[in-house]
Amino acid sequence: MKNHRVSASIVWKCLLFGLLLSVPSYGAQQSDAKTQTSPGVDSGAARVSGAAPKDAGKPEDQSDTRALAESNQAAVLDAAGGPMELSDVEACVGAWGSSRIHVKVSDLQRWPKSCVTVLDSGLLQIDRQSPHLFAMRRAVRKLAERPLREAVINEQMKRRRQAYKVRQTEQRARDWATAKQLRRAVLRVVPEKGPAAAAALLDVGRRVIRSFMGAELVDLPAALEEYDLIAALSAHESLYALGIRNHDHWRLVDLRPPQKTRQLNRAGRKLTITPELLISGSTGISRPLGNPAKIAEYLAGDQQTKLRRRLERDVKSLLAFYNYGLLHRRVRLRWGFLDEDLGVDWAQPGDPSLHDVLEECRKSGAAVDIVTGSAPSWNEPWSRAMRVKVVSFDYQTITVRSGETRTIRRDEVQAIRHVPQTESPANDKQ
Question: How far apart are CA 144 and CA 142, in angstroms?
Fold first, then answer.
C-alpha cells in the first residue's frame, strides 16, 4: 500500500484535536474521569485512549506514559481520517511541539481497548467502533477550548489594533491638513489696560505686519475676521479693548505665563514670572517687549513712527515665543540659577512637535535644517540653520551627523524643518 505523507493540512487539524494531549497529567486525569463515569471497567481499560490494563510487574508511571503516547496517536489518526504510518503519526505529534514518545506496533496490537487499529499492511488507523473514541474526542475538545478561544481573542485584538493604527494615522493626516490650513495671527494691543490706543497684527503665514494707530483701529476688527486663530498676551482682554465682545469666531491662544510665581527657597522668597522673562529665556531675545512707560510716552507725544517700530518688534518677539511653545510644548524659565520648563497648551490638533519631526526624520533618514541658540531672524529665518541628519535623541539632547557627529540640547532648538527639495543646502555652521 502506498505510504501516506504528512501534509500541512493534517498537521493543522492535529493542532485542533491534539493541542493539549501532550500535557503529562492528561492520562491520569482522564483515567480518573473515566473510572467515575464507567463503573465496572478496570482502571487500565478505563483510560481515554483505551490503554491496556496495568501489568502487575510494571510501574504505574510507565503505563501512564504508554497511555499518553497512544492518546496522541489516536488524536492524530482521528484528525487525518485515514490510515498512516507510525513515523508519519509521530511526525505530526512532533509538529505540536510536544515531546515525541515512541510506541511499538506490537504494543498497540496487544492493547485490547485501544482506539488505534493496526492494519495488515502495518499502517495505523483510528478505530471508530472503539467505545473510548467519543470520550477521547470530548476530552480533546475540552482541553483545546481555552487555548483556541485565546487564539481567537488574540487574533481579534490584533485586528483591532491594526484597525486602530489605521484610523489613528488617518486622523493625524486630517488634523495635520486642518492645522496647516489655519490662518494664524499674532496680535499686540497697547496699552495693556484700558481702551486700545494702538495695535500691531502679524500674519503668520504671509509674514506681514500691519500697524493700527488711533483712528485706524476701527479697521482692525474687520482685519481680524480674516483669521482662524489669534495669539496674544491676554487674548480675551485684548479683544475686549478693541470693542469686540463675541470671541467665538476665533481660536484664541493666550501667551501669558502659565503660572505667576516660582518659590525660590524655603524661606518663601518668590520670583514673579513675567512675559518678558519667559520670552527672553525661551527665545534669547533681549528686551522683547516695549517698556510700558515708554509706550505711554509715545502715545502721549503722538510719536507714531517710534510706536510703530516698537509694536512691530513686540509682535516679532511674540511670534518667536509662540513658535517655541508650539515646537516644544513648553517654554523656558531662566533666571539666575533657574533653568526650568513650564508646559503650555498652545498647540492645535495636527501641530507637529519637535519630537514628531525628530522621530520621523530619524526613521526616514531625511535631512533637516535646525536653528539653535536665539530665535531666527525675521528677514532670513533659515540663514543660521545647520543641515544635518538625526542619529538619535532623548529628553534632553539630540545627536546629529553632518560630516561629524555632534550633540545639541533640545531646549536650544528654535526652529526645525524638513529639507526643501528646491532649496540649496543650508549653512553647516551654527
Answer: 6
pTM (2 d.p.): 0.68
The mean pLDDT value for 336-355 works out to: 93
The H or E element containing residue 283 is helix 275-283
Per-residue confidence (pLDDT) for residue 76, from 0 to 100? 76
pLDDT above 90 as % of the chain: 56
Which residue type is seen at 382? W
Measure the N-to-C terminal CA separation of the chain; round to a whole number of Å.
83
Q: Cell 505667576 sits at which residue? A: 260
CA distance 51 to 48: 8
> 137-141, 183-187, 267-271: lowest mean pLDDT where?
137-141
Could you tell me if 285 and 374 are in contact, meaning their C-beta atoms sit under 8 angstroms apart?
yes
Q: Which residue has the higher pLDDT, 428 or 163?
A: 163
Closest alpha carbon to 325 in 186, 421, 124: 186
Alpha helices in 349-398 (DSSP H): 354-364
Task: Give the C-alpha separation, 162 to 341, whole Å.
Answer: 36
Q: How far is CA 419 from CA 94, 177, 227, 423, in A?
A: 56, 19, 28, 8
Query: Which CA distances in Å does 183 have to 54, 206, 349, 352?
Result: 87, 10, 14, 16
For 3-61, give the DSSP string.
PPPP-HHHHHHHHHHSTTTT-TTHHHHHHHHHHHHSTTS-TTTTSTT-PPPPPTTS-HH
Q: Which of 94, 76, 72, 75 is nearest to 84 (CA)?
A: 76
- The arrangement of secondary structure in 354-418, i.e. its CATH architecture, is Roll (2.30)
The full DSSP string for 237-250 is HHHHHTT----TTS
Of 109, 26, 124, the C-alpha closest to 67 is 26
User: What one-character-per-residue DSSP string does 263-276 give?
Assistant: E-STT--EEE--HH
Domain boundaries of the chain, sorted by first residue: 8-144, 184-343, 354-418
Three-class SS of residue 346? coil
Q: Is the pLDDT assigned to residue 143 strictly greater than 70?
A: no
What residues are paired with 252 via a beta bridge?
230
User: Could you tell me whether strands 251-254 and 208-213 are parallel, antiparallel, or unpaired per DSSP bridges?
Assistant: unpaired
Count of other CB atoms within 10 angstroms of residue 344: 23
C-alpha cell at 377: 531672524
Residue 234 confidence (pLDDT) above 80: yes
Cα–Cα dist 361/154, whole Å:
33
